[in-house]
Amino acid sequence: xxxxxxxxxxxxxxxxxxxxxxxxxxxxxxxxxxxxxxxxxxxxxxxxxxxxxxxxxxxxxxxxxxxxxxxxxxxxxxxxxxxxxxxxxxxxxxxxxxxxxxxxxxxxxxxxxxxxxxxxxxxxxxxxxxxxxxxxxxxxxxxxxxxxxxxxxxxxxxxxxxxxxxxxxxxxxxxxxxxxxxxxxxxxxxxxxxxxxxxxxxxxxxxxxxxxxxxxxxxxxxxxxxxxxxxxxxxxxxxxxxxxxxxxxxxxxxxxxxxxxxxxxxxxxxxxxxxxxxxxxxxxxxxxxxxxxxxxxxxxxxxxxx
Length: 306
Prior knowledge:
306 residues
């Protein structure tokens, strides 16, 4: 978009900060009674375990009508592929060969429609859980793509930003709850690393369990307009927190060191995985190249949508 391009141009003018070595402290304050695994090398040795194919196996989306604002792509148990088209606020169901089978949702105010559809997750029996960021509501669709019901998210503080991350086996959803990215709370050029809470919510919208509070990705303030507060922009090659689910256990790492904590379904830490992998240094030249490449990608994307 033109806004995104202008955003990055302003970022260039403000001289992107170089990612710093940072210590955000231990993931778990008290490791007593927690299994600590210290890895030194992959169990499979030097043999590569993952490769990227030379050609794609399925092609979804026509070249003249590309999917825009794609949320996490799901694969159902029978091989069907489910994708969000943010431009149309719809959920698309494809067969394993890429043929469109059915469409659910759509832009509007009726039940099962959206204005801020930005995430989908797979629930039990191939149900699809969709989340609308603007209305802060779940919508549930059955295995055939038929709308079932809706529920409003009910965090303790309705002003916090709520971001769904993954679904548990029972369909409940792991959320990250933190300060909204904008406006930026500091000065232009300042680097801030906020913290956020992780919580499990049921499909009734109510919280199940608090899983802890952890540092989040580094952001810095960018002057998008001459007046008003600066906006948040990710620090190029900065620290980023990643969280995922393994069955009903949350895995989380903050990037400050190669350490991953396993948090049980009741919020209790159960394991720490560590490896002696040093963080690569980042230079100013690398930061500038990153921003230039991002600007090019945004300009190319804006042209394809015009």
